[in-house]
Design brief:
2 copies of one chain form a homodimer. Chain A is mainly alpha-helical. The first copy, chain A, has helices spanning about 15-30, 40-45, 50-55, 60-85, 90-105, 115-120, 125-150, 155-170, 180-195. In chain A, helix 4 (about 60-85) runs parallel beside helix 7 (about 125-150).
DNA sequence: AGCGAGGGAGAACGTTCGGTCTCCTTGCTA
DNA sequence: TAGCAAGGAGACCGAACGTTCTCCCTCGCT
């Protein structure tokens, strides 16, 4: 059908089939988990043949890694754009928290992609597990940095507190009433923000 | 070898092979996840034959349900014994939080069995998913009850706050330094306890 | 003494898994 | 115009999946 464009060899950007594959994998892995979906499901839903998958990825694991990379980029850009509109470091934290709450409230929310993934890959040596750790480290450092700029001392403790609230909110967001979860989360973050020293 | 005792038909309690099976399944499911381990692994490690598994359970799913039931009973008795030694409702909350922290610090801690399980069973209609919801509902009600007795108004919000901290601590406990996670968690619970009205 | 349940041993079921293979067509580019 | 990469279609692989089956042995009970 409409496959006349953008299927060039090495001149243009990424191939169309690859993007369809990665997009489908991202959607299905997030919605249904990783181990419970086979490559057959993904290639069928992406309308791609088996050979095409293995032409772009070395195997399922690389597809999983690419999925987490998509999620990572998405969250980083989401955090970046949330920070842009804020006036002060404290407001940046509020904006990031609001963005998280928006995600929890949005339809199709299935929890944190990274917490879900690490539940399926408990081995710390596994590349998927390490990708999760890397993402979490970045997020903790980002929040802690913001809190330090906002004058919190020690910022480490406050940063861990905010991340703990976020983890809890993301975990419960698809198991409880999302509205209540968001209210509790935002109130908790505001509480951390309002207590400079303990 | 020592299988002379306790293998009686219907007179005594549960069979020895069944307990070995359930114990092994509990250990492996918690440590490695559910979808990624097959029944072959479990029957081999439990030193039980294939037929024995299907004599006691209708299938793998029932074994998973039994595993979650073991986890549920364990946590309920852990909470009950923590509450016994406390003098006031607020101290009961502290004791429960301390018990949770002990779990996070203990070797082999792999996060919350229920949060891990629900990550692999996203379908809300699935029995495993519903077992997780039931356990979480009990825990939330228990904590909210305790906080209400301690004089919190509204206790609902405080209960959700404590559960959110617990979820975050359980999720991060096997991804960060458990000592720091516990410190942040206990401080957070103490913070909720110290603020009767917002 | 004999019945029946619990369990061990293991073959076999059909399905699905992740992964590799060949053959053919399309369309760009050198 | 010839070459070549991308992609489609589909056969095929060995392994693992969950499940069912038969056969036999060993107890505890009546």
């Amino acid at each position: 059908m409409s496959q006349g464009t953008a299927k060039r060899g090495r001149s243009g950007g990424v191939s169309e089939a690859r993007e369809r594959l990665l997009g489908t994998a991202t959607k299905i892995f997030y919605a249904e988990g990783i181990h419970s979906v086979g490559v057959d499901r993904i290639i069928a839903e992406a309308q791609v043949t088996r050979a095409t998958l293995y032409r772009h990825f070395t195997g399922k694991e690389e597809l999983v890694l690419a999925y987490l990379d998509v999620a990572d980029r998405g969250i980083r850009s989401q955090v970046a754009s949330a920070r842009e509109g804020a006036g002060s470091p404290a407001d940046e934290v509020r904006a990031v928290a609001a963005a998280i709450a928006d995600g929890i409230r949005s339809p199709g929310f299935r929890g944190c992609a990274f917490l879900n993934a690490v539940a399926e890959y408990p081995d710390p040596a596994h590349p998927v597990h390490q990708a999760v750790l890397a993402h979490r480290q970045w997020f903790l450092e980002t929040v802690t940095d913001l809190l330090a700029q906002a004058g919190h001392e020690p910022a480490d403790e406050a940063g861990r507190h905010v991340v703990m609230l976020r983890d809890g909110a993301m975990a419960a967001g698809c198991l409880f009433d999302p509205e209540l979860v968001c209210a509790t989360f935002l109130r908790g973050v505001e509480g951390v923000l309002s207590r400079r020293a303990e």
